[in-house]
Amino acid sequence: MVSAAVSRCVALVTVVTAVHAPSAPFLPEAYKSLCEQRLPDGWEWQWLIQEDGYGDEVRPYVPDDARVSFRQGRAGGPGVARTIALARAEGSYVKILDADDQLTPGALARDLAVLEARPAVGWATSRVLDLLPDGSTAGFPGDPEEGPIERGAVLDFWTANGFLAQVHPASLFVRRELLLALGGWMALPASEDTGLLLALNAVSRGWFTAEAGLLYRKWAGQVTGQAAHTDPAERRARMAVVAARARALAEFGWRYPTTAADWADQGLSRK
After folding, report:
1. Which tens digit of pLDDT belongs to each residue from 154-199?
2. Which of 255, 179, 178, 167 is closest to 208 using CA atoms?
3. 271 within domain boundaries
4. In 3D, which of 142, 138, 145, 120 has the Cα closest to residue 215?
5. Domain range for residue 191?
6. Closest by alpha carbon to 3, among 68, 94, 88, 92?
7. Is residue 270 a part of any domain in this protein?
8. Of 14, 87, 120, 219, which is most buried, counting CB atoms within 10 Å of its CB?
């Protein structure tokens, strides 16, 4: 039976964060960046913090705010934590915010404006800046131009560039029902967010915003910095299943939006 939270949509942006003990001390900074967001009249946000496991280390860092919901669950990695948090999601849109990252001013409003104005766009990403230990930021060349990202473009770029996407999955903003239709995040020990990004791009157009929307923290304890993340055998397996899923979705032909009328409203063709 689908919960009431999952079955309804309101003028709300649901921000989803997976957290474990090492990243918990960064939650107050993520919260500060969220509180500084300004949404259009009638819109609000909720923050779902889901601990990957059970323990006593995370709860002290969870803000005391009625808009914030904290739960714990069996450890299974960040993808499992985010996906199970969707049972509490009430918003029309879902925004990803990792526990150690920060939103830039205006990021939520920019993402929201893109998808509200473009019903045939399923998801949005934005430029990401690395947040270095000394507090400085660093950007990189090669971001795409601001605008639509056509179906299949992310997989093509990712395959041709050593499994690096041209847009960052940590900045993802997505229609909740589309996210649910794809099953949430992949059941992988890592790259689960890349797997979701490629799946979304296989079935729907996306959007890239050139203005930086996320500060991506670089620190010694981050999951992507651990040796297991770069184990060659596991990495090959992860990349293989991520690519296979995206290609299978593209070949099956399911698309978002699902009706020709929705596409016609945007002056687009489903072919």
Report:
1. 999 999 999 999 999 999 999 999 999 999 999 999 999 999 999 9
2. 167
3. no
4. 138
5. 4-264
6. 88
7. no
8. 14
Parallel/antiparallel/unpaired status of strands 147-149 and 205-217: antiparallel
Q: The domain that contains 252 carries what CATH number?
A: 3.90.550.10
For residues 183-207, b (16+ Cβ closer than 10 Å) or e, as one string? ebbbebbbbbbbbbbbbbbbbbbbb
Distance CA 149, CA 163 (A): 17
Structural domain tally of the chain? 1
Residue 136 is predicted with a pLDDT of 95
269 within domain boundaries? no
> Of 1, 191, 171, 9, nearest to 89 (Cα)?
9
Give the ranges where 27-175 is alpha helix by DSSP (H): 27-35, 78-85, 107-117, 153-160
* 37 in any annotated domain: yes
Largest CA distance in the chain: 53
Burial class of residue 72 in the structure, from the number of CB atoms within 10 Å of its CB (0-12 exposed, 13-18 middle, 19+ buried): middle
In the block, tokens 């690519």 appear at 243
Query: pTM of the prediction?
Result: 0.90
Q: Amino acid identity of 242?
A: V
